[in-house]
Specification:
Structural class: alpha/beta
Distance between the termini: 62 Å
Keywords: Hydrolase
Helix content: 25-40%
GO biological process, one term: acetate metabolic process
Radius of gyration: 23 Å
Family: Belongs to the acetyl-CoA hydrolase/transferase family.
Protein name: Acetyl-CoA hydrolase
Bound molecules: ligand 0RQ
Oligomer: single chain
Largest sheet: 8 strands, mixed
Number of strands: 25
Domain Acetyl-CoA hydrolase/transferase N-terminal: 8-216
Strand content: 15-25%
Number of helices: 17
């Protein structure tokens, strides 16, 4: 413990998770560390749920995080009915069901926005921040673990801080972080980050030691991610994208090292990134929010030379290998606050290739990444909007059908729009790739249908488009039929 708590004053603050949970009262807003299941505060929220369930006490909190946290914590808190409002992202079945049943509120927010909204008082103030750390320095600063997420802004603004010192997270994580606070509008300078591997901040989060109300020692590991391995279809999608990049290199529009890559979460995004293993691309750089398995595979294969993100989220097998041996990657990784990993200024300056996932795309290029059948929340927009709008190339990937072909992921009209046609440069399915750059809506529709739609649905989409064109318009539609495919699925269980 002395190795990890280097400022002796903090030793007196060590208490149990149960005792720390008593600091959380009804109506409070709680900010938890954690981004895509990694580096999340784990034991105090679970102790809170346990306490409330046993005592029958009436308690509801607002829960703010970086992004998703471990299934266990979000699932337990949701099931116990402890959450009034959650933001900015979640990825848990029980919580999703509560949100869709209207039993808890959820704000689906661009992940770079939360810090700015808190700083400006647009959201309720954070009463308690619960932050996972690996160490406290001699001068009382904290070292985060496998993610930074929103921890630095929570620490700066919260009235009280509870630290979860996780001894299962290796001390080797120290030195991987780069914490930069842009400050308040009016006093801000340009963010001086001009290359992926550049440090602009401190390796620790600065805190006011007087705000630390408790230190809880834990050894609970991160939940690992449940990424499905690449399958035949995702490999084909990766192939389309690699072929496109090779063409761009040949045309002289991109160098062989391409441009820094961002990739969203999920099995499809991970599999597509995996596809670079088979490409001729070298000296790749990653400027993303999450580092999934594929990035470490690409580093091991010598394809990726540097990766910057705000969290590391791995499968159980990869986590067991990478996290204890994190020293091996020390010179090739940086973890930043999500406000910086997802900052529009930097995304545009570095000129990123951003690969994110769609639930459905419409024929004109609008993308729905969040809502099934227009109404039911899946996970959230996450960082996909931060990246897509400001990207050099905004790429969206999805299989052309879902639910055994009963749903077409290419539809006449997106049932919810997260990414407008203006933010979408490429759509990729296992059927092919639609390059929408420089195309007007009437050109786009034909390319999306012909290149990306599944043969089961292609003719029906062309019929829709041709009938709409007869009616006219810049972006032709038959409004009375635009959502008929979704309505049919809801009525019959199939869009066919
Ligand atoms: O359902 O879980 O019941 O089998 O969606 O789909 O094909 O396994 O793909 O794991 O990559 O997830 C968009 C949801 C894709 C995810 C989404 C159903 C499908 C399946 C999962 P089952 P797959 P993935 C980074 C940036 C958020 C935005 C983002 C996501 C389940 O990647 O949430 O990128 N992205 N954020 O059956 C109905 C359709 C469907 C559909 C797929 N058209 N209609 N259901 N599914 N298409 C993240 C952060 O910022 C933290």
């Amino acid at each position: 413990i002395e190795q990890r708590i280097r400022n002796k004053a903090f030793l007196d603050k060590i208490i149990s998770s149960e005792a720390a949970s008593l600091l959380i009262k009804d109506g409070m807003t709680v900010g938890l560390s954690g981004f895509t299941r990694s580096g999340d505060a784990k034991v105090v929220p679970l102790a809170l749920a346990d306490r409330v369930q046993k005592s029958g006490e009436k308690l509801k909190i607002n829960l703010f995080t970086g992004a998703s946290i471990g299934d266990e914590v979000d699932g337990v808190l949701a099931e116990a009915g402890l959450i009034h409002k959650r933001l900015p992202f979640q990825n848990e079945r029980k919580m999703r069901n509560k949100i869709n049943a209207g039993e808890m509120l959820f704000i689906d927010q661009h992940l770079s926005h939360t810090a700015e909204q808190l700083r400006n008082g647009f959201l309720p103030p954070v009463d308690v921040a619960i932050l996972e750390i690996v160490a406290i320095t001699e001068d009382g600063q904290i070292i985060p673990s496998t993610s930074v997420g929103n921890s630095s802004i929570f620490a700066a603004l919260a009235s009280q801080i509870i630290l979860e010192l996780n001894v299962a997270q290796p001390l080797g994580l120290e030195g991987l972080h780069d914490i930069y606070e842009p400050g308040m509008r009016g006093q801000r300078q340009p963010i001086a980050l001009t290359s992926v591997d550049q440090r602009i901040g401190t390796p620790y989060i600065k805190i006011d030691p007087d705000k630390v109300a408790a230190v809880v020692v834990t050894e609970k590991s991160d939940s690992t991610s449940a990424i499905k391995a690449p399958d035949e279809e995702t490999e084909v999608m990766a192939g389309h994208l690699i072929e496109f990049f090779e063409h761009e290199v040949k045309k002289g529009r991109l160098p062989r090292s391409l441009a820094p890559l961002q990739s969203g979460i999920g099995s499809v995004a991970n599999a597509v990134l995996h596809g670079f293993l088979k490409s001729d691309c070298t000296d790749l750089e990653v400027y993303s929010e999450v580092l999934q398995d594929a990035v470490f595979d690409l580093m091991d294969a010598g394809k990726v030379k540097f990766a910057s993100a705000c969290s590391i989220t791995l499968s159980p097998e990869r986590a067991a290998d990478v996290i204890p041996n994190i020293d091996k990657y020390r010179d090739r990784i940086l973890l930043r606050p999500q406000e910086i990993s997802n900052h529009p200024e930097i995304i545009r300056r570095l000129g990123l290739i951003c690969i994110n996932t769609a639930i459905e795309c419409d024929i004109y290029g609008n993308v729905n990444s969040t809502h099934v059948m227009g109404s039911n929340m899946m996970n959230g927009i996450g960082g996909s909007g931060d990246f897509a709008r400001n990207a050099l190339l905004g790429v969206f990937v999805t299989k052309s059908t879902a639910k055994d072909g009963k749903i077409s992921s290419i539809v006449p009209f997106a049932s919810h729009v997260d990414h407008t046609e203006h933010d979408v440069d490429l759509i990729v399915t296992e059927q092919g790739l639609a390059d929408l750059r420089g195309l007007a809506p009437r050109e786009r529709a034909k390319v999306v249908i012909n290149n990306c739609a599944h043969p089961l649905y292609k003719d029906a989409l062309l019929d829709y488009y041709n009938s709409a064109v007869k009616r006219g318009g810049h972006t032709p539609h038959l409004l009375e039929e635009a959502l008929a495919w979704h309505a049919k699925y809801l009525q019959t269980g199939s869009m066919k």
